[in-house]
Each structure stands twice: as structure tokens, then as C-alpha cells.
Amino acid sequence: MLSAMLLSTSKSLSAALLYAALGLFGCGPDDTGRTVARPVPQPTRRLAPKPRTPPVAAPKAVCTLTNDSLAGQPFGPEPTVQELLAVGAKMTARKPFANLHEAGQMDTILTLQHQGNEFEFYRTPDKDLLRQAVITNFRPDYGRRLRATLNESARQNGGTCLQLRLRDTERANSVSATFTAGQPSTARVQPYFD
User: Fold this and answer.
1) What are the alphabetically sorted keywords of the record (predicted)?
2) Partner of 149 at 20 to 30 A CA spacing, among 9, 37, 128, 142?
3) What confidence tens digit (pLDDT) does each residue in 7-44 have?
């Protein structure tokens, strides 16, 4: 009986030694009973801590800026009826309008659409005056110039705004713009005219 117990103990001791040896050599049985190599543990890499970035200031709700040159010429060179028609604008409305200063003279209000943008001009016999422009597409040349003016105005105001109101000192010319993700998305230009 003692011999059976020693034999049983020696078998379990042999099995334990076999598993210990397999563990030392990096091999062991997988689920199918085959012996597979175990990966060699790698030293743990320590990542350098990320530098802390200062919190981004939330954009101001409304910014108002008075600047005669930016409000007076938000497009830089102002687009004309002829230029807009030459690049594909469509005339969508033409309304007669009685001139307030010349008795009996009839002028015209012209509305043009160009790539999603709308322009309204006051046409007299000798000139066209921009009454209003609503810009939602800033890809045309005049839109890029307007975007540059609006971005410069926001920069002068000290940062990003959700809405920007730009005017001259006489409060005759005005531009109002809505910003999305730091860029102008809609702008309304209203130059002074009598």
C-alpha cells in the first residue's frame, strides 16, 4: 500500500515537474493538446505625458465692431450688375421704383441670384447702387474677399464670434454675419444709399 502511494506521488510529482519545465521554456498545451510557443513578455513602455493644452475659449455670442474701411467696402471692389451677369448670375426680379429726389423719374430695383447668393441693386439711369447682398456661398471671388474682411473683423474684435456686426462710425454701412465652426456661414451686406 505504501508502494502504491509512493508510485502515485511520484507520478503526480513527475507531472508537476513536466509542467514547470514547459513553463520555463515558454511552451504549454493549447486547447487541442498541442504544444504552442507562448509570447515572451515585453517590458512595459511608459508614454510621455501629453502636454496640457489650455482650454479653448468659447466663442462670443455677438461681436460688434466699428471700422469705416471694412464696413464701407466689405467686398473690397464691390461686384457690379455687369460683372455678376458675366459670371452667370440670373436676374430674378425687376421692379420699378419712383425716385425720391427727381420728380417723375422712375428707377428700378434689380434682384440677381448667383451661386446661391442674392444681390439687390438700385438702378438709376446713370448708375447701379448695391442695396443689399445676402451671401451664403463664399467660393466666388467676391465671397472670398468678404470672408477675408469678416475674418479680419473677428480677429480685430479679439477672437471668434457666433454673430458679428460690422458698421462704420456713421452707422450707415453695415454687415452682419453668422459664423459656424469659426468661419462665416451667412452674411448680409447693407451699404448706405439714399
Assistant:
1) Signal
2) 128
3) 455 555 565 555 555 555 555 455 565 666 677 777 77
